[in-house]
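Why predict the complex rather than its parts? Because the way molecules touch one another can change local conformation, and only a joint prediction can capture that. The input here totals 228 residues.
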Amino acid sequence: AQKITQTQPGMFVQEKEAVTLDCTYDTSDPSYGLFWYKQPSSGEMIFLIYQGSYDQQNATEGRYSLNFQKARKSANLVISASQLGDSAMYFCAMKDSNYQLIWGAGTKLIIKP
Amino acid sequence: NAGVTQTPKFQVLKTGQSMTLQCAQDMNHNSMYWYRQDPGMGLRLIYYSASEGTTDKGEVPNGYNVSRLNKREFSLRLESAAPSQTSVYFCASSEAGGALYNEQFFGPGTRLTVL
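Output of the joint prediction:
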């Protein structure tokens, strides 16, 4: 069965440091997509980055990059030069042949000034 | 361009009462979704509509019904609310659910409490 695991319930990071949020997934489909979303304290869900299983390169979007290790079934989100505004919940999600998003439980990131 | 809108933002119900959560999108998306978010858990899919005129059950459909009124609107109905349905409800839409790369765009959520 499809599953997403985020093993870090919470993280504290010093401002301006890089941070890596872990995500592992489980699927038997060869074709799938991986998503990261940010949920600030205001509650909305904000799409950050996408990685397809057949993409040759790791996805990047500004300060966000996805460290995709297919053999390990991991899709970690890397935020470079963290800012106070990065404090939020971060969710990893996967879509496979069912075309439905399966979500992890999330990681609460707190950036310290 | 409002994106995905949801009404109401907050609602308190008594056990057994009914209500409908409304959702509309102005992005001309084909697919729409209803999720619930409970503390310490990721989002769970209640129902989705891959295209106008179709609806399908997700992971947790019991106690809910949906209507895809037209391409823009997708409502979620609780016929007889139970305390276990206390949650934050999100509506989302995407260009075409049957494509891996299409991200979903979310509404602001409805915080529902059932007493």
